[in-house]
Design a protein that fits this description.
459 residues; Death Domain, Fas; DEATH-like_dom_sf; netrin receptor activity; Immunoglobulin-like; flat; 3 domains; alpha+beta; ZU5_dom; 11 helices; Chondroitinase Ac, Chain A, domain 3; single chain; ZU5 domain-containing protein; five-stranded antiparallel sheet
Length: 459
């Protein structure tokens, strides 16, 4: 821009920043900003935006990028085992772009899957919208039992070929390879794609169990049991939703994987805690369509159990047991945050109100607040709401807003893990000195209070 207008670059930068802030307030997103950067071939900006999206704690992690030109290249999403190999000559000479690869974790219903078919791979979106001159080779994970699928012709490839149009073709054995957990095939269309199957025998599902982070007097503790299609609803999305609920929930153990034989029979989930047995039903049709509502099982602890209980969960389809697992459930009591509680070595047991007040005394620069907020999982836009304009100046942040942000974070972390998580966030935000000062000050205050209590008792 500075080459086309008479304004100096620093003025252009300020105007651009103001414009982008107003755009964000009107609903602008990182995804849309990345699309704009790619459309105008602002490659350096696109790389920085994609990198920031990938590592931001509050953003879904399934995004990758690479620079592709006429020599080809490779795009990968290692955490899901997705590889896209683009050969040399697939795009014209002179074209060089930052290409992003994203897994859609919602709104996958736009895929025109026919009646009787079920999606068996992630639904993937790519910023490379034109048809390739030479086909790319795609390798994807799948959720079918390979031993049950001798004929690959039951697998169908959907590829987006226009703004609202999709191509559909069967993958035959001579053009695709299927193994126990991967499927490989060629395609010239990478804008959006996924695979479906007409054979549901051996389709793999997931069971994920969540428990409350802590017990409150007002709420009866319950287990929330989700049965998921692995590529229609992702565990990461449920984790975020449960973590932000009124009483935050966290995942118990790694998800349990199991297979079904057909969609003719719904699933029965049996819950046994040693004193009672409860049975609930989950409709197969809802699971396959991507609907995701938990089954809730109430927990009752005796005084002797002290918040710890063994439970058994069995999953049945018809008379066959598809999965079973024992869980050890431990739930802490919600602490009294008005009190500083330490162990025998004077280590803090949770983040108390006094500790939050001390943090507000030590950390007051906007740059430090933003760095810490990112490490605690807050996005830039979510941090804006904590800035009370009546309590903020050019070189300091809103004290009341900072305290509210820290309390919101505290409610989403198990009490026994709060101090360690906060200490790590401070270290990663470059505020290690503040962590040492705050922890030392709280310990000193507690020792002073103990000495004072002993002194007053002797009066």
């Amino acid at each position: 821009m500075s080459e086309c207008v008479t304004f100096p670059p620093h003025m252009i930068g300020r105007c651009t920043l103001k414009m982008l802030k107003e755009w964000v307030q009107q609903g602008g997103t990182r995804e849309r900003l990345l699309d704009v950067a790619q459309a105008f071939h602002f490659n350096d900006a696109a790389v920085k935006i994609a990198e920031a999206m990938k590592y931001l704690p509050s953003y879904m992690p399934f995004i990758s990028h690479g620079i592709i030109d006429h020599r080809g290249g490779e795009l990968t999403l290692g955490e899901l085992g997705i590889v896209v190999s683009i050969p040399g000559g697939a795009i014209p000479k002179g074209m060089r772009s930052v290409v992003t690869l994203r897994v859609l974790t919602h709104d996958t219903t736009g895929l025109p899957v026919r009646e009787g078919e079920v999606v068996i791979t992630p639904v993937i979106e790519c910023s490379l919208t034109q048809e390739l001159i030479k086909p790319a080779t795609v390798e994807l994970p799948h959720c079918i039992n390979h031993h049950e699928h001798k004929d690959d012709s039951s697998v169908i490839l959907y590829t987006k070929t226009g703004p609202v149009t999709f191509g559909r073709r069967n993958l035959t054995p001579h053009i695709s390879q299927i193994s126990k957990d991967k499927i490989k095939f060629p395609t010239r269309h990478l804008q959006a794609w996924a695979l479906s199957s007409t054979d549901l025998q051996g389709l793999q599902l997931r069971c994920v169990v969540f428990k409350p982070l802590f017990m409150t007097p007002a709420e009866k503790p319950t287990l929330r049991v989700y049965i998921l299609h692995p590529y229609r609803y992702y565990v990461e999305g449920i984790t975020r939703k449960e973590k932000s609920s009124y009483v935050p929930y966290c995942q118990v153990l790694k998800e349990l994987m199991f297979s079904i034989e057909s969609k003719a029979s719904d699933l029965k989930i049996l819950f046994d805690d040693g004193t009672k047995r409860n049975e609930q039903t989950m409709a197969i049709k809802s699971i396959l369509s991507g609907k995701c509502s938990p089954l809730k099982f109430e927990l009752q602890f005796s005084p002797e159990e002290k918040g710890k209980k063994n439970v058994q969960i069995d999953i049945l389809q018809g008379s066959a047991t598809r999965a079973e697992r024992q869980y050890i459930i431990t739930i802490e009591d919600e602490p009294d945050y008005a009190v500083d509680h330490t162990d025998s070595q004077e280590r803090l047991q949770y983040v108390s109100n006094n500790l939050l007040e001390l943090m507000a005394d030590v950390i007051h620069k906007p740059k430090d607040l933003k760095s810490l907020g990112y490490q605690l999982g807050f996005s830039s836009s979510s941090m804006e709401k904590y800035n009370d304009q009546a309590d903020v100046s050019f070189d300091s942040v809103s004290r009341s807003g900072f305290g509210e942000m820290l309390r919101d974070w505290r409610r989403q972390v198990r009490p026994s893990e709060q101090v360690d998580e906060l200490h790590l966030a401070l270290q990663n935000a470059g505020l290690g000195h503040a962590a040492d000062v705050i922890i030392h000050e709280v310990s000193s205050r507690r020792r002073f209070a103990q000495v004072r209590q002993v002194w007053e008792s002797k009066k």
